[in-house]
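Minutes, project check-in
Item: structure for the 193-residue chain
Input as provided by the requester:
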Amino acid sequence: MCEPVSTSTMLYASLAMSAAQAGMSYMQQSQQASDQQDYQNRQAAAQEQYRQENARRANSAYIEEAAGVQQQMVEKEVASSQETQDLQAERIREVGKLAANSEAAGVSMELLTADFYRQEAGYRDRSSLQMELDGQQAQQTIKGFRAKAEDRGNSVQPYIPEPVSQPSLIGAGLQFAGGAVSAYGKYGTKKKK
């Protein structure tokens, strides 16, 4: 038959079990903290990648919108230049007709020519002012596109990880000490009979 186990053997076995439990608990908590930290790092990396992609797309949209407005301005300038050239050609034709017409001579020819130049100058001034106003409006529109792109780029906030609580060796020590006190209370105070 087996001999009975002494109380001191039970005490030491209980202390060993308590130490093993405290160690395992500490290792498990360490692994959980490490896993949580890894997860948060992956979340932060994914969020940062998304932020960068969002900012890139916002910037691309801004460039395309600004290019569209600038293209419209170029088209307006070309159209205005063409209209001015057409007006000049008309003035030259009319002056040529007047010169060819023998009835329009002297002072009346000079007055009609001066009127053509005046009308052309007025048109040029109005056209120039309109192009200046359109240019200012285009710049304001482009500034609005830039602000919209910046807002869109800033709309995605970075991921800020929560602090990960690391296991404490003091906690593991206290867990072991609690087990040791319990074991001593159970086996250490018993007297051999």
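Outcome recorded: The first helix runs from residue 7 to 100.
No further action items on this chain.
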